[in-house]
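Reading group handout, session on sequence-to-structure problems. Before we discuss, look at one worked example. The prompt was deliberately terse, the way you'd type it at a terminal:

> structure Ribonuclease inhibitor

The input record follows.
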Amino acid sequence: MELDIQCEEMSPSRWAELLTTMKSCKTIRLDDCNLSSSNCEDLSSIINTNPSLTELKLNNNELGDAGVEYLCKGLLTPSCSLQKLWLQNCNLTSASCETLRSVLSAQPSLTELHVGDNRLGTAGVRVLCQGMMNPSCKLQKLQLEYCELTADIVEALNAALQSKPTLKELSLSNNTLGDTAVKQLCQGLVEASCNLELLHLENCGITSDSCMEISAVLRNKSSLMDLSVGDNKIGDSGLALLCQGLMHPNCKIQKLWLWDCDLTSASCKDLSRLISTKETLTEISLIDNNLRDSGMEMLCQALKDPKSKLQELWVRECGLTTACCKAVSSALSTNKHLKVLHIGENKLGDAGVELLCEGLMHPNCNIQSLWLGNCDLTAGCCATLATAMATKQCLTELDLSYNPLDDEGIRKICEALRKPTCNVQQLILYDILWSSEVDDELRALEESKPEVKIIS
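And the output record:
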């Protein structure tokens, strides 16, 4: 049994009702429910008396250190079987870490701990690392984003990594680590016996100076499948170093996020080689990099390589124009694996989307999700888009937000949605002006086709 409630104010009567339900739940999710430490006393009792409970998610509640202390009393009981604990943005400080350390040391069932968006600080996370080093700790996933960590945390993290072969996921994004600390962390990861599968280091103050060490992790940890270094100024020179590790035969990367990394079209030669030859790579995000049309054309050439197995490509806000759309269309008509294309916030224009639709409607194309928000589109391209929607049954999600489509364009899109051959299930139309008559048509369409969700 699962209890999943979000963004609900809890009255005493409602809370009492839910407590009865919780006694038999395997999963409890209560994000954004205005819970406090007093609710945690009740939850502690649930943890203690419900041995089937394996997941507890309490993100975005004002639990505070007192609330976590209550929770941990339940977590430390022998009957507790909790595996996943989410406490993101719960107003915790370093004071909570001593209590959580006790749980890590004594509760081998706990495999996931998510405590990001809390002011734990370096001192607090050092205490958590002590708990991780206990032989009883079997932690597999640790999320420490936005925890006000500094470079001083790396020594404790490395010691924990050395003693914890079970650890598979480590997220340290949005902490001011800097190059020196990231280098030390990577050296520790190379030496550690853990089989890390996910490493997130977004917005950690990384430059090209750290990229050789990150590359070494990629070469030495064939288990690593998910790497995110977005929002770091690694530049083209850093990307070239990363690619040395990414192209190594030992590297089995599947998901690579490089958004806002100060990349230019100069990086696209290396990226193209990666896309065309790394058959494990299925998802890459290059959002907010100045790739330009010339860079995109190189990427499209790589997508046409039979060895490319890429399924998701994110190139939003990359300085693209109509000029690259013929190459994109050609890639769509060739690549059978690509399912998600985020190409919004580029000046494609109606002419560009007309070209994209040619590739989209090719029998080889298997696109399921297409994002074209803020692409300078008007009603002029909507007839072609409508044809694609009505004929391409694999297309289930379409984003046309922030484009001045007006009543004429929206009506053409609605016509396509009404057709039995159209399989679009989610249509996103943020910040588009239309008349009350068209609004009525959209609501009527949702009623007649309840499987269609229109988000505006």
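Points for discussion. First: The mean pLDDT is 95. Second: The domain at 149-262 is CATH 3.80.10.10 (Leucine-rich repeat, LRR (right-handed beta-alpha superhelix)).
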